[in-house]
């Protein structure tokens, strides 16, 4: 994994990572495996989780690896875990999982040891699944390692297999009129790699949803929309930070304009939410 590979020459790292991706990709299940996934109302689904690795401003080696579990359909926080971690593996496009996923696996394992009754039945991952250079993004990687259903949710289009953020793509986005509307992301190979989803009525920027593991694309898109109070699904948006002040999203570090919204604590207070996640 990433922590052990940091000392190798870059060429050897990439070769090892490509081999591992190819081997693990064969284990990805892109179909529904749980009864709740087949139910129109997701009956039987009680806990949804979200994971993310958020970076500290001006320090590319320090990050917060977070896991949040929410009740479903209420979307109330049941469990939170956030650890500051040191990233030792280099960043290489298309190999993000080897830099970050081990910390997310650790978070899932801590939950299993501490509060097994709160284990999520599905994980939302801030990143891509099969919408990836080699069809094996971080959501696939985490799903295979944890054996949990995983959904990749990305804020930007990964331009692979002929997918482009061009005029035609922007035109399709304009045709998404209300929350829940989506269109397929068909690659040049003829494979549907995911869907662009308008996740909320008041958000014009789509999310890019793709299968991670043990769920169909149709169920992944429906559940993503069901978990959105704003643009970003709540299991990902409700990440925590162990900093002296508690921003509600990592982009606050970049000084983006914020908007007051109801605090997730439900105490009548307000929290700042940046326009990136709103």
From TrEMBL:
Q: Which UniProt keywords apply?
A: Cytoplasm, DNA-binding, Endonuclease, Hydrolase, Magnesium, Metal-binding, Nuclease, Nucleus, RNA-binding
Predominant localisation class? cytoplasm
Question: What GO terms are given for molecular function?
Answer: DNA binding; metal ion binding; RNA endonuclease activity producing 5'-phosphomonoesters, hydrolytic mechanism; single-stranded RNA binding
Q: Name one GO cellular component term.
A: nucleolus
Names of the cofactor(s): Mg(2+)
Residues passing through the membrane, by range: none
CDD domains according to UniProt: Endonuclease_V
Q: Which InterPro entries does the UniProt entry name for this protein?
A: Endonuclease-V
GO terms classed as biological process: DNA repair
Subunit comment for this entry?
Monomer. Interacts with PABPC1; the interaction is RNA-dependent and stimulates ENDOV activity.
**Similarity comment text for this entry:** Belongs to the endonuclease V family.
Q: What does this protein do?
A: Endoribonuclease that specifically cleaves inosine-containing RNAs: cleaves RNA at the second phosphodiester bond 3' to inosine. Active against both single-stranded and double-stranded RNAs. Has strong preference for single-stranded RNAs (ssRNAs) toward double-stranded RNAs (dsRNAs). Cleaves mRNAs and tRNAs containing inosine. Also able to cleave structure-specific dsRNA substrates containing the specific sites 5'-IIUI-3' and 5'-UIUU-3'.
Q: Which PANTHER family match?
A: ENDONUCLEASE V
Q: What is this protein called?
A: Endonuclease V
* Source organism (scientific name): Muntiacus reevesi (Reeves' muntjac)
């Amino acid at each position: 994994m990433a922590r052990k590979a940091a000392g190798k020459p870059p060429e050897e790292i990439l070769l090892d990572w490509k081999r591992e991706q190819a081997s693990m990709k064969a284990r990805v299940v892109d179909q529904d495996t749980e009864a709740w996934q087949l139910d129109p109302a997701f009956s039987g689904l009680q806990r949804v989780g979200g994971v993310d690795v958020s970076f500290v401003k001006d320090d590319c080696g320090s990050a917060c690896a977070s896991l949040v579990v929410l009740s479903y359909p209420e979307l109330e926080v049941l469990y939170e875990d956030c650890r500051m971690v040191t990233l030792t593996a280099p960043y290489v496009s298309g190999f993000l999982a080897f830099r970050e996923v081990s910390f997310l696996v650790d978070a899932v394992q801590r939950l299993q040891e501490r509060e097994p009754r709160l284990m999520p039945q599905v994980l939302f991952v801030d990143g891509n699944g099969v919408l990836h250079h080699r069809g094996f993004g971080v959501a696939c990687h985490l799903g295979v390692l944890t054996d949990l259903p995983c959904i990749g949710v990305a804020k930007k289009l990964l331009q692979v297999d002929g997918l482009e953020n061009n005029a035609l793509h922007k035109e399709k986005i304009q045709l998404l009129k209300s929350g829940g509307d989506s269109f397929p992301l068909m690659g040049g190979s003829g494979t549907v790699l995911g869907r662009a989803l308008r996740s909320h009525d008041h958000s014009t920027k789509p999310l890019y949803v793709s299968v991670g593991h043990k769920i169909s694309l149709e169920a992944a898109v429906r559940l993503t929309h069901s978990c959105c109070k704003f643009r970003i699904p709540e299991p990902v948006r409700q990440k925590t930070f162990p900093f002296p002040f508690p921003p509600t999203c990592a982009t606050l570090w970049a000084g983006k304009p914020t908007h007051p919204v109801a605090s997730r604590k439900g105490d009548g207070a307000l929290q700042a939410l940046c326009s990136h996640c709103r």
